[in-house]
Design goal:
Elements lengths: L1 H14 L1 H30 L15 H31 L6 H19 L5 H26 L5 H37 L1
Helix pairs in contact: 2-3, 2-6, 3-4, 3-5, 3-6, 4-5, 5-6
Length: 191
């Protein structure tokens, strides 16, 4: 009976059950780490005086982090990071729930596709992708919430809040890239 049991364990091992469980556990670890980074960024972005304001501008942390995750994980991982970051952002914002999640889903999926098919993942290309994502999100947000919904001073909002926030976010994006780069590298070594 002992030899039969040992043979059954070898057969199960040959099928890769223990390998599959181990790989799934490491994958959950990776996405839990990314989720915690997005959660901390969402809280830091939403706290009133946690990050210093320059003029009237506040940095957006979630967009560059989600874009950088997309650059390392591809379109599906990028879409997941975009939705997760967008939902966390929507929880703390005064915008329509799901607005940021939908925009970041599209933006991060596109960034993940481009990183797999067209461009290399390095600091310069990631900064260009983050700049494009920040600009796209900022202009769409400004167009819908300030211009279409008839804010009394849409040009003032664009010039004093949206564009300076874009520059501020882009200025701290290299630090966020290094954070995601080291996290992705470490998590890839574990996997």
């Amino acid at each position: 009976a002992g030899a039969g049991r040992c043979a059954a364990l070898k057969d199960r091992d040959r099928l890769g059950a223990s390998h599959l469980i181990n790989k799934l556990g490491k994958r959950y670890l990776k996405w839990t780490a990314y989720g915690l980074i997005l959660l901390i960024a969402s809280i830091a972005q939403s706290l009133p005086r946690f990050l210093p304001e320059i003029g009237s501008a506040r940095p957006v942390l979630i967009i560059p982090i989600a874009v950088f995750i997309a650059m390392f994980e591809g379109p599906v991982g990028g879409a997941s990071a975009g939705v997760a970051g967008g939902i966390l952002w929507d929880l703390f914002s005064d915008r329509l729930f799901g607005f940021n999640a939908l925009l970041l889903l599209i933006i991060c999926c596109a960034c993940g596709l481009m990183s797999q098919l067209l461009i290399r993942n390095n600091l310069i290309s990631s900064m260009l992708m983050a700049a494009a994502a920040l600009f796209t999100h900022g202009i769409i947000d400004w167009f819908i919430y300030d211009l279409m919904l008839e804010n009394d001073q849409p040009l003032r909002v664009l010039l004093w809040y949206t564009l300076p926030g874009f520059v501020y976010s882009l200025a701290i994006a290299p630090l966020l890239y290094l954070l995601i780069y080291h996290a992705a590298r470490r998590l890839r070594n574990i996997e």
